Amino acid sequence: MSQSGQLAVAVVEQVAAVRLELEDRLGPSVSGFESLGQLLPRLGAAPTVVVLGPSCSDASILADVERTIAGRPDVGVVLVAGELSTTILQLALRSGVKDVLTLQGDTLQIAEAIERVGVGLTIGGAAPMAAATQPGADTGAQGGGARVTTVFSTKGGSGKSVIATNLAVVLAQQSEGPVCLVDADLQFGDVAVMMKLAPVHTVVDAVSNIDHLDTALLESLLATHEPSGLRVLPAPLEPAFADQISANDMITMVNILRRFCSHVVIDTPAYLNDVVLGLVEESDDVLLVAGMDIPNIKNVKIGLQTLRLLNTPMEKLRLVLNRANSKVKLDIGGVERTLQVSAEALIPSDVVVPQSVNKGVPFVLSHPKSGVAKAVRSLAEILSGSDAESRRLHG
Ligand SMILES: Nc1ncnc2c1ncn2[C@@H]1O[C@H](COP(=O)(O)OP(=O)(O)OP(=O)(O)O)[C@@H](O)[C@H]1O
Ligand SMILES: [Mg+2]
To answer: Which domains does the chain have, with CATH numbers?
Structure first.
């Protein structure tokens, strides 16, 4: 079977025309097979990514796939379905398929999925060379140290999502390892819209596979913000799905992300629920965002009191004052005295913020020289700095 570098790629599709189309799209090093049965005796020593065509979106074929790849860390499977439905997605992921795409989709997306799955494969128990440094690899204790930052506020519209997205983009630009932004505003999350992403998968797909979720599977479900390389776990597309996701599910996902990311940033809704409390507890830093008006400050004070009552370690709370230069006649010192916390970041008010939100381009990219972008970069520096400090303290 033909191989590309260390990795072999095989297409399995019963319908000849579709098989040839897939082979054609994926390049000359790809081999085509009519059935899984035909492919099996040809599986060689090299790690192999099997691309299943649309005719394989069938329960009995996927059951065969599951049996075939059980105990074979050298074989990874991607399904290219005719059309994507929740049933096919669940069936495929439960059978051990690592990613599901559609035939109508971009060829580049299929190629990227093959590459991601390939990185997680092993030859005779040893990881291929790239695996130790690639995001798809389960880096275990070695890489198990992402810093987790939750962006929170008890007031709606205070700027959480704007700050979370821009901060995550800056961290993605600066970090060596992957950075992931998790949209934990499960009902009304708008991170994907703010970054002009059209996600194929969301947190719902991760939760429906929570029992066998590993780094490779979770990574395959993340969207990529191409301009910055930031990985994104988007909120459900329908508010009703939020009920299916528990605090434990979110914590499980964040802990898996910790293994292969350098930094995880979490955007949250404007209220304290089980999910938010669980994430606050898991986080290394909690950015408490307050807008510069009296209702904001009042709500943040109540939020702070609640977190204190819940024994949240105060040292991980960092006050971020948003729209801090507005001519709103609120003095920063007064706000800090009221909240009994000093502000670690002052984000100015700037018209480029709503402009960039409407364009779907984070302002740190569209207006890197603006005051808001500088403020977010300083915040990122504080978080990276405390990361280093914490690593020194804890070993
Ligand atoms: N520093 C700023 N300067 C100007 N406008 C801002 C600033 N921060 C936020 N905004 C505006 O406020 C709006 C609300 O911000 P954002 O969506 O980030 O708030 P949020 O706290 O996530 O809201 P929600 O609670 O609804 O999730 C944004 O569309 C943005 O245009
Ligand atoms: Mg928001």
So the answer is: 3-132 (3.40.50.2300), 142-394 (3.40.50.300)
Looking at the CA of 165, name the nearest ligand. Answer: 1
156 lines ligand 1 (CB under 6 A): yes
CA-153 nearest atom, ligand 1: 21
How is residue 166 written in tokens? 């821009």
Residue 185 Cα to ligand 2 midpoint, Å, equals: 7
Residue 354 CA, closest ligand 1 atom number: 31
SS (H, E, C) 266-302: EECCCCCCHHHHHHHHHCCEEEEEEECCHHHHHHHHH
Tell me how far apart the alpha carbons of residues 135 and 25 are, in angstroms, rounded to a whole number.
25
Structure confidence at residue 5 (pLDDT): 52
The yes-or-no verdict on residue 132 having pLDDT over 60 is: no
Is the confidence at residue 125, as pLDDT, over 70? Answer: no
pLDDT tens across 213-243, in order?
A: 999 999 999 999 999 999 999 999 988 888 8
Q: Pick the more confident residue, 302 or 281.
A: 281
Secondary structure (DSSP) of 198-259: --S--HHHHHHTGGG--HHHHHHH-EEETTTTEEEEPPPSSGGGGGG--HHHHHHHHHHHHH
> pTM of the predicted model, to two decimals?
0.67
What's the 274 CA to ligand 2 centre distance in angstroms? 17
Residue 143 — very low, low, confident or very high, per pLDDT cuts 50/70/90?
very low
Cβ of 162 less than 6 Å from ligand 1: yes
Q: Is the CB of 322 under 6 A from ligand 1?
A: yes
Q: Which atom of ligand 1 is nearest to the CA of 270?
A: 25
